Amino acid sequence: MKKIFALLTAFVAFSCAKTDGQKTEFSKVALSETLLASDGSQVAFQDILKKHEGKTIVIEVWASWCGDCVKAMPKIKELQANNPDVAYVFLSMDKTADKWKAGIEKHALIGDQYMVNDQMGGVFAKAIDLDWIPRYIIVDKTGKIVLYRAIETDFDKINETLASLK
């Protein structure tokens, strides 16, 4: 009987565990991965986050070839206008630096710009569980991830999250 109770308790505890994929911190793999900066240098992701220590950060993972990303550009601009104290970091999944830089210029993206070296199927993308772009991640002022997986249809959730952090 004790074994059945223990199994039942373990099952209930496991069933109630958070399974929405929400993470509160980046993996060591993601943090140590280097990204191409717009000046041509390579920067570790952890150093990008450190640059904005003490600020709320909105990270957008996008690509110039992504139709949904382009469609969401007005929403990210509205988000920036309504949340000027937030740091914005754009991580491109473009295949070439030329296309990435042309996309930044074409869409007049304001914020820190980096390109992931190995794109959608690479180490960094896997380390952040990337399965769709655009993807938005929000990091609070303490460095904790408060929204790990949001896409272009989740701007209400993104706005609510930012409002709760003010």
Automatic annotation (TrEMBL):
CDD domains listed in its UniProt record: TlpA_like_family
Localization in the cell: Cell envelope
Residues annotated as domain Thioredoxin: 24-166
GO biological process terms held by the UniProt record: cytochrome complex assembly
Database matches in Pfam families: Redoxin
InterPro entries, per the entry: Redoxin, Thioredoxin-like_sf, Thioredoxin_domain, Thioredoxin_ResA/DsbE_sf
PROSITE patterns, alphabetized: PROKAR_LIPOPROTEIN (PS51257), THIOREDOXIN_2 (PS51352)
A Gene Ontology term for the protein's cellular component: cell envelope
PANTHER family tied to this protein: THIOL:DISULFIDE INTERCHANGE PROTEIN DSBE
Name listed for the protein in its UniProt record: TlpA family protein disulfide reductase
Organism in which the protein naturally occurs: Flavobacterium hiemivividum
Lineage of the species this protein comes from: Bacteria, Pseudomonadati, Bacteroidota, Flavobacteriia, Flavobacteriales
